[in-house]
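Protein chain data
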Amino acid sequence: MVLPIAVGIGVLAQSIILTFYGQEFLPSVLSLQILMGSLFFVFINFPLGSLLNGCDKQKTNTKLVGLTMIFNIILNLVLIPKYSFIGSSVAFLICQVFLTVISVYVAQKISHYNLGSAVQIFLKTVFSAFIMGLAVYLLQEKLGLFYVVFIGAVVYILMLIILRGVSKQDYLEMKAAFLKQK
């Protein structure tokens, strides 16, 4: 679910900034777009960290997060003086990608899973988010922000259904999760 949110906010960043914060915050559009690129990796890192913790690899997980923190500090020291808040956004993106890559590497040694199946589902999600992003991009000048967001969500869901990116079991699990929250 995070991929369409990240793509949607990334495409609509300028409209979002103008609508909620005004013209004086337009320089933050690029930073918001970069941070939306990071969002996917942030969400992937949560279950990876939980997997490591659940497999009695808390120390390994802590070391990976600590190493990423040190890397982030170094990148911020290098990038912020030259690129300001954009540099900080780039540092965050690089560090989240780094943490994801090293966590996946470690997780593969612990849990053997069907990488081909995971890649196939991921590609369907990416393609659906791409089509949604294209629709949002083309409609943003013609319709209001909230209409475009609604249409984007519908396009994304329809694309997932068409590509069979969501199984009946996935649908039932999502339905059960939403009903539990209420």
DSSP finds seven helices and no strands in the chain. Residues 115-182 form one domain. The chain has a mean pLDDT of 89. Residues 23 and 112 are 50 Å apart (CA to CA).
